[in-house]
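User: My collaborator sent over this chain with a note saying "see what the structure looks like." That's all I know about it. Can you take a look?
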Amino acid sequence: MRTNFLENANCNPNRRGPPLGRLWPRVTACEPALAPAILGVNSCTDQDLVVADSMLRSRLELVSVASDGNEQLAYFCIYMADQATWLEPESGCIQQIEAYDIGLINSEVPLRTVSTAGTRHLSVFLPRALVLARLPWADDVCSRRLSLDHGTRGAAQSLIAALRASIELDHFDAVVPCLVQTLLALLSTVGSDTGPLKPPRVVTIRQKQVAQCIKRHFSDPGLTVATIAAELKVSARYLQRICEGGASPGEQLRQFRLRMAAERLRNSLWRERSISEVCYSCGFSSSSHFSTEFRRFYGITPREYRS
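Assistant: Without extra context I'll predict from the sequence alone. Here is the result:
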């Protein structure tokens, strides 16, 4: 049977937000089931961002087909439930999402979901572009269990509680985008039980982002691993981890500055500039420190390199 409980979520005039069926892909229940009780739903007026709180009144097994990009919007759903749930993608590898762990669903991927009676879900429906801007690896870990350590679990639970409480706020539009960005920033640091810290492709993306950030800002003497992490909206510890096996972010920054300095020392356009000017233009704050680092890296002094 075709379920319509999401389409009817706003039948109660006290509910706010668009019909959730506009976001959800074509969904079929595998057996007769009671429609979940929609405890609250709200959305931002200027973007397709919906928060829904629901309680299952019976066991619910749903099969969804991929969105065709016409009738429904392509989105990610981040959800947390107070009881275990199960996700089964087309691969047939069933994933159990433990209570209070976070599940990530992609509307463009066929999926079977199973939840038991009495399960309460907090679901956050987000446009794909918004999620991928913060979590470029999202497609690779959909329908998997994202493991949370003790600290991250507590922070995630607090954010979910805040999102649930925000549903009835009159200033929902002002509060929820900030909470969502904080949740995405938190998820950018977690791993998956089904693989390494992040899939190799994701690690490569992050490594390229580090290199691009260094290239843009190397001349700024205030650029550090901490400021690189802040620009990429991840932790400094996370940057260190993705660079394991190669040069650390700090070492990459040092080497890039030295290579740029060497290039300028040999560049005819910089011939009339002093070595100190070259030093400061490449982000070094001390000419003596620059000379020491340059000699350690190239084996000769900047003056000898230029001659």
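A starting point for your reply to your collaborator: The first strand starts at residue 27 and ends at 29.
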